[in-house]
Amino acid sequence: MQKKLVAPSLLASDFANLQRDIEMVNQSDADWFHLDIMDGVFVPNISFGMPVVQAMAKHAQKPLDVHLMIVDPDRYIKTFAKLGVHHLTVHYEACPHLHRTLQAIKAEGMKAGVALNPHTPVSLLEDIIQDIDIVIVMSVNPGFGGQSFIENTYQKVKDLKALIERKNSCALIEIDGGVNDANAKKLVDAGADVLVAGSFVFKSDNPSQTIKKLKEKIA
Ligand code: DX5
Ligand code: ZN
């Protein structure tokens, strides 16, 4: 079975000590850096943009997993590729021509991801799942860290896993929002491959230890 991964979300890090927090993740058992880009239009919050991603990329020694919570993401695909991003995820709800968008991401040499808001059914991916490398299942409404986990996510992950298997897709299932040590194991048992964790990691007393324990829990 494929190794289960943990991707700390830098949204919950200390922006005044970004380099310190990135080094902590470099040295930890974490697998990817999860970067949340919000435009204040698709979601009611603004996080950080290209100059900050560029600064992060300079220090990060693990893959950059970028989650775009923005309208019309096609405008910035080439820019993120140039910044050294490894995985670029767009929202299903923001892409009227999703197939074209995914091809454009792959043409730039990146893995292509699709994120689903909590109200968006996985069945809508039926005709595109074979073209997707990563599905991010939002387990909170996107826009903010530190929200509580939506319980319906477990069923959604099971349905998505069944769809992926039925269609012989290689897509990884990534869970984003409210992940902690109380739901991690259950998510992986339901079919999740990657867990994003923001507040649970960075607001803990010992973030590196928290990552280690989370990894052990889902090993
Ligand atoms: C929410 C973001 C998440 C967020 C998760 O819109 O997509 O990646 O950083 O934060 P926690 O783990 O605190 O819910
Ligand atoms: Zn995210």
For the biggest sheet, the summary is: 8 strands, parallel
* Number of H/I helices: 8
Q: Return the string of H and E elements.
A: EHEHEHEHEEHEHEHH
Mass-distribution shape: globular
Number of domains: 1
Going by helix content, strand content and strand pairing, the class is alpha/beta
- Estimate what percentage of residues fall within beta strands: 15-25%
CATH architecture: Alpha-Beta Barrel
Count of individual beta strands: 8
Q: Radius of gyration, rounded?
A: 16 Å
Helical content class: 25-40%
List keywords for this structure.
binds zinc ion; 219 residues; alpha/beta; TIM Barrel; 8 helices; binds D-xylitol-5-phosphate; 33% helix
Describe the structure.
The protein is of the alpha/beta class and 219 residues long. The protein has one domain: Aldolase class I (TIM Barrel), CATH 3.20.20.70. It has eight helices and eight strands. Helix 5 links the parallel strand 6 and strand 7. The site of D-xylitol-5-phosphate has 22 residues, from strand 2, strand 8 and helix 7. D-xylitol-5-phosphate (DX5) binds next to strand 2, strand 8 and helix 7.
